[in-house]
Description:
This protein has one domain: TIM Barrel, CATH 3.20.20.60. About 55% of the residues lie in helices and about 15% in strands. It has helices spanning about 5-15, 25-40, 45-55, 70-75, 95-105, 120-125, 140-150, 175-185, 195-200, 200-205, 215-225, 230-245, 255-265, 275-295, and strands at about 15, 20-25, 60-65, 80-85, 110-115, 130-135, 185-190, 210-215, 250-255, 270-275. An eight-stranded parallel β-barrel has the order 3-4-5-6-7-8-9-10, surrounded by nine helices. The chain has a two-stranded antiparallel ribbon with strand order 1-2. Helix 4 (about 70-75) packs parallel to helix 5 (about 95-105).
Amino acid sequence: MNISSELFHSHAQGPVDRTYGLTFNQQATTTRARHSKSRQNLMRKSKTLEQIRKGEPIKTCVLGHYIPAYIAHAANAGYDCIWLDMEHRAQTIRELQSLLAHAHRYDIDIMVRSVTLEKTGLYRLLEDGASGLLIPHVSTVEKAQMLVDSIKFPPLGDRGLDNAGLDADFSLHEPDDYVAWANKETFLAVQIETPEGVHNAEAIAAVPGVDLIFVGPGDLGLRLRQSNEMSLDEAWEIVATACKEHGKAFGGPTFSLDEMQKRASQGAQLLINNSEFMNFAEGLSQNAALFSKLAEE
């Protein structure tokens, strides 16, 4: 190759590595192809979806602050998933990315409750390593379908392809392998938090790409107490029936053993029974009470 043709080749296809006679772009493609097949089985699998497929409880806890150690201890305790709340808590994007990296390190799912409904903002959370997204106040089929379009790749949705984030092991996989993995191993959970959502539960559960329905007892309970149209237990039963009809998992906060047993008997799999906020409040109260006992002695 003479100098002029080499310059043309370099301009058209990328800089040339004279040692191997390949452009750096060609080398990158060759390297990725060589490693992709050996790494296909190393793409992280969702423990949440694994439990759903086995019909077993999804052991879930809640984190709302930047505490990497909580992730390590939750994984060590045997939890499958951490619900990371961004709706009512604030974290920087770097803090969020750090927590997601820790979750991959300790092999535990993080389900991010998103602060945005903007399409690219949603799938960026998945690219940064979230196993699933939890979206509050989903009361209509139209909103559920919009969310599927945002975070699922074709043919289920219309998510944009990058294949260079933590979720893709930073482009170590072929795009088609990555897309197939993402649609299979990431999940969409939608929250039923209004009477309208309860009435639409069957239609929402029927939407392809909605993987899990989350009953939000706080907001839903508030609205049901005001409308008096049904009890919270009746709402749970309506959601349970809808999910059974369409083969979808469901669940929600179940912080006491009695509540866990009640919802599990209805078929709920997502059982949430711990939060770092609860641990702070209860642990501090219990240990502060020791000073009173010390003073009595």
